[in-house]
Amino acid sequence: MKPGTPTFEQLSVFVAVAEEGSFAGAAKRLGRAVSVISYAVLNLETQLGFKLFERHNTRKPVITSAGRAVLLEARSIARGFDNLHAKTKGLLDGLEAEVNLAIDVMLPCTRIGPTLRSFRAQFPTVSLCLQVEALGAVTAMVLARDAVIGVSGPLAAGVEGIDHVMAGSVPMVPVASPDHPLARAQKILPGEAREHTQLVLSDRSGRTRGRDFAVVGAHVWRLGDIGAKHALLRDGVGWGNMPLPLIERDLRDGSLFRLAIPDHPGGTYRFSAIWRRDTPPGPAASWLLDQFVELGRDDAPLPGFVDL
User: Whole domain around residue 183: which residue ranges?
Assistant: First the structure.
């Protein structure tokens, strides 16, 4: 026997009866007459070919084992229709269906997670696509329209076609493992760091090809991933600059050592919230950028630090 195709209204009535525990409760919840509720359930049972509720010898309908199995699917369909309705309303109100966000790898994780959780609660119908990149790659993604908005490092400033708002900063400090020669030295002399391998992040976009930032070492290893750089620093492969919030735990437990390099004490890495000038962000994207700007409002450079 091939079952019929239930209507969304029939499934909604079935879910209401199951959750309210009675036809009268479902009728009140849906604003319908009890006879209409009863008739809808009877028609649904006829469509499916089996009983959803036992009605005899009970004061209230008791869901059957088959009814419990159908209930899971009916709820899923009802949620899908609710999501469709909410997304359609959002689109009619000008809300984006999706936001593509690119963020600089240096941005502290303590700002990303809470912000994205709040975004999900504020805009439950808006999908989010997140990319994490280094140096000029964030700006390159926004320029190429692969991201509608970004939180970029200082390389976004002055780029033609890009508008930006300052979004805080992070201190970058030179570190190495405790057994690295620079960490064991009683005093690091000017120019001494140049003689040791420096680990630096590379720009996968190619926008900064041929340009170096905070690179002082004569021997340089370039990496495209900050996680790999972090691991190699801990393993003593070389020394390098890292965002302070990312390595504070390492400094506390002794996995990394902050280097007092006289000619390279560290610097301030500034962030900008960016978007294409000809494509202003929509409501959800604007809200997201505003959060990152607000979180960075009170950032202040460490004493003696200059902008990188």
Answer: 170-269
